[in-house]
């Protein structure tokens, strides 16, 4: 005698759990509020600097009181004794240090991101150590090395020091880009009878160009605003950060805010130009 199984009763479908609308109503503001607060916190010193570049103080020293708006400090930005030579020294040193750091750091980044060789981990550790070590330790070590080598401190020691601590930042930036590249593009170029050198310049180099540019800008900024290491190895040379440190002992002139605003604007323009160049390259 055959038995027929009774059809199983289908369970009623459970709908989505009811949401606590009151909780959702106020929790959705947490992330936007936190983001706005952090942006204001990080950008407030820059806004204050820009604002006090127009502060109409009745004397040539900056105060916390805002006296009104004026353009006098912008018209006479280099009328402060010693400001222009110090700023000129910084502009001389930063491009040279950034160029050498970019060239050496790019080669390091290519080697670290593309190849696996004996001693890779120690080299990787040394690069991260150059970033993690305190600047005062690095500055005193560099000064000791120059003293033992009987090298007079000045332009050369500043440039060598800036190259030394900037290489690691460029190498890490380029390595991150190299590790994300598709190696099949280079293989395809060589399959089309391109030599390894030609494939590098026509395929690899354009792909890592944004990272190289970012590394150069980073090295340039690091060299331009460095104070601690430069203070150890500068000797008689006075750079812009060193001049500002000396000026603040008797009162910072308002022109310092003007120079800071100009440097900030130059950085924004460089970043925008880099983004536009990348978009144009991607469209092409």
Account of the 3D structure:
With 284 residues, the protein is an all-alpha fold. It has a domain at 81-253: MetI-like fold. The protein is 70% helix and 0% strand. The protein has twelve helices and no strands. The chain has helices spanning 21-27, 30-52, 72-75, 83-114, 120-132, 135-148, 155-179, 183-191, 196-225, 228-233, 240-247, 255-283. It is globular, with a radius of gyration of 28 Å. The model has no long low-confidence stretch (mean pLDDT 83).
Using the coordinates shown, work out and report the CATH topology of the domain at 81-253: MetI-like fold
CATH C-level category of the domain at 81-253: Mainly Alpha
- What is the global morphology? globular
Main pleated-sheet profile: none
- DSSP strand tally: 0
Short description:
This protein has 284 residues and is mainly α. It is built from 12 helices and no strands.
SSE topology:
Layout: H1 21-27, H2 30-52, H3 72-75, H4 83-114, H5 120-132, H6 135-148, H7 155-179, H8 183-191, H9 196-225, H10 228-233, H11 240-247, H12 255-283
Helix pairs in contact: 2-12, 4-7, 4-9, 4-11, 5-7, 7-9, 8-9
Q: Key features?
A:
single chain; 284 residues; MetI-like fold; mainly alpha; globular
């Amino acid at each position: 005698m055959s038995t027929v199984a009774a059809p199983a009763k289908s369970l009623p479908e459970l709908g989505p759990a009811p949401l606590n609308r009151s909780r959702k109503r106020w929790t959705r503001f947490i992330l936007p509020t936190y983001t706005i607060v952090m942006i204001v916190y990080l950008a407030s010193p820059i806004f204050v600097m820009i604002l006090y570049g127009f502060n109409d103080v009745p004397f040539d020293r900056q105060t916390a009181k805002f006296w009104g708006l004026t353009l006098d400090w912008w018209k006479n930005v280099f009328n402060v004794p010693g400001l222009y030579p110090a700023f000129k020294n910084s502009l001389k040193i930063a491009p040279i240090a950034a160029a050498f750091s970019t060239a050496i750091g790019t080669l390091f980044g290519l080697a670290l991101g593309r190849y696996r060789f004996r001693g890779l981990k120690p080299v990787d550790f040394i690069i991260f150590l150059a970033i993690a070590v305190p600047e005062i330790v690095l500055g005193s070590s560099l000064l000791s090395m120059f003293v033992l080598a009987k090298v007079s401190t000045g332009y050369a020691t500043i440039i060598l020091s800036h190259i030394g601590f900037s290489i690691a930042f460029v190498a890490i930036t380029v390595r991150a880009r190299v590790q994300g590249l598709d190696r099949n593009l280079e293989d395809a170029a060589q399959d089309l009878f391109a030599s390894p050198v030609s494939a590098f310049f026509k395929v690899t180099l354009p792909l890592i160009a944004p990272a190289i540019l970012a590394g150069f800008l980073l090295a340039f900024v690091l060299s331009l605003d460095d104070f601690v290491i430069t203070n150890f190895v500068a000797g008689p040379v006075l750079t812009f950060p060193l001049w500002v440190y000396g000026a603040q002992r008797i009162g910072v002139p308002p022109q310092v805010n003007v120079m800071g605003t100009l440097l900030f604007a130059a950085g924004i323009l460089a970043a925008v130009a880099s983004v536009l160049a990348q978009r144009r390259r991607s469209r092409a």
